[in-house]
Amino acid sequence: MTAAPVLRSGSLRRRTIVAVLALVAVLLIVLSVVVDVALGARLRGQIEERLRDRAAAAASLVGTVDDADLAERLSDQGLAVRIDSAGGGSIVAGPSPEQLRDGPPGPGGPGRGERAAPQPSATGSDVSVVASSVSGDDDLVTLSSTLSDGSTLTLTASAVGVQDTLVQVRWIMAIASAVVLAIAAGAVIVIVRATLRPLDQVSEVARSIGAGERGRRLRPTRPDTEIGRVATALDDMLDDVVGAEEAARGAERRLRAFLSDAAHELRTPVAGIRAAADTLVRADLNGPDREMLAAQVAREAARASRLVDDLLMMARVDRGLDLSLADVDLRALVRAEAERAPLLHPHLDLRATVPDTAVMASVDIDRIAQVLSNLVENAARATGGRGSVRVSLDESPTGIRLTVADDGPGVPDADRERIFDRLVRLDPARSAAGVGLGLPIARGIARAHGGDVQCLAAEGGAVFVVTLPRHESARTR
Question: Least enclosed by CB within 10 Å: which of 88, 186, 200, 226?
């Protein structure tokens, strides 16, 4: 058995705020990392550019000054200088790399930050840097250059200032990120509360409807938005629920009225049977009196049996009839009813009109015969068994029509639909008026076949029309 899905009902406001702040925090961290890497690379690039500039300047002085003077001039820029001549000698000037790791030289010392570079003499030869490479670590940057005379010039600069600058920038970014995160948290809380306020209205309306205010609705101004679609769906659901509730109450009222009327209808024949039976048992009756009481018992028993049969048929109609469909010619059905009715009502003037060609339909012949019989019986009761009844059958492109018309008192316009309710009789004072189930049963059977029974407006008498779908073969002709 599949478990029903469970709705996660955590706080939407809290989850939204946490998600947005987490996203902002991640973006700030990414921004800080990007700034740190880019700024560090830029500062180290400036140091490397400075070393290449000094190496190019030194290369222009090769041959005009000796190596010691050249090293001294370069060391004045705060650089550690090492010149390895092609002959094997080496000259070292300026602070050592270890001193540079401890920090750049202070004011007044070597490398006091002057930008002046060694100037080449007017007679300098055309000497340049043949090759160079840069290396180092977080605290030092080293440039090794091979000059055109075969000597190797190694310049080392301190990068401690770069790390100090990056540390300061990191602190600034951290403080700024914390401030931005705090401002964003306040702004997100306000915005999320304003955004989710319609959900609070939805909850309020739902609670009020649950408390009994069935007429309240949300009626969103923008049904095309997310919250608008939720509100519209909730309004539709509430309309369906309220409609179903009203329908259930109406069905309950009709059921209670039906049971009350059915009990009342059954009470009359049962009381008659009981009274006649008591008289037959207790009284010493012979001859005509005894036969009259026995006939009354039989008559009331038949009436009760007919009512029970009608109630059972109505229950089957409500539950859904099991139809035994067959292709039949409805003309035979009309002719059979025209022959049967005079046997029950000898003084009834019934005339049937049918087409010359077959009217085929896929129906349950017994059920449709019951529909026609109920309508003819209704017409006979309405005319007192002595009126005129016309039964006609015709076929049209839209379907089959079976019409039963009488010249009785007719049906008022206000009652033409009400007479199809259960146990409804327009003249309850007449003892022979039946129990009011014939017409509801006829309509139920017709609708089970995909048709209907209607009472049409007429100037004189009543006109009932049974509509049925055409036969499948007739539709394809």
Answer: 88
